Amino acid sequence: MTEPRRNPVAIIESLDFEGHGVAHVDGKTVFIDGALPFERVEYSSYRKKPGFENAQAVAILRESFMRVRPKCQHFGVCGGCSMQHVDASAQVAAKQRVLEDNLNRIGNVRAQTLLAPIYGPTWGYRHRARLSARYVAKKGTVLVGFHEKRSSFIADMQSCEILPKKISDLLLPLRELVMNLSIRERMPQVELAVGDAVDVLVLRVMEPLTPADEELVRAFADRHAVQFWLQPKGRRPPTPSTRSTRRR
Questions:
Q1: Which of 29, 138, 194, 198 could form a disulfide with 127 if both were Cys (CB 3.0 to 4.6 A apart)?
Q2: Domains defined along the chain, listed by start
């Protein structure tokens, strides 16, 4: 009886700008999702080209000191971020190294002096985002969130650790709001813009809101102290729809 074929194994050398582990196997560059420098991983390829492969780590045989436990319950399925399994300080160091390599390789520039990197918040830092919205008949609900990794499906998100908490807490209420709109199948996108004084949600609408829809949107805006803007079909810019009467 023959043994089942094992997946190939690689030792990760570095990270690319998208957070993929980079390895070289049999003269070919392999970009491996979920793998970190200094790790020995078993991987499965999902795209093969003559000069490179894209793959997914299926087993970590030796862990890197950079690896941490992702905070978000949706990490690995949701495609909204790719480096939650990397220690925050290591993320900054990796991004700086990618910048230095690009300047050297593409621009033929080497920095004479390197300043210390500027660190921002580890969580809740994303104040601009474009979320997809879709009515899923089989589930009998609306999903609002980022796309799943390498997929056109929308992740079934209950929360998001990279969005400010006040916006993350709106994900489920937003799903309910869109579900109750008459144009729920004609509203594919919600864009977020979080400011110091106001939070704006831009609804991409393929058809005009009905008076009943407008009442629902206005009540939501007042209840959650946000503004709604509408971006109609075509290239027309968004326009204000509601302004909450509440202050933060």
A1: 194
A2: 9-106 (2.40.50.140), 128-242 (2.40.50.1070)
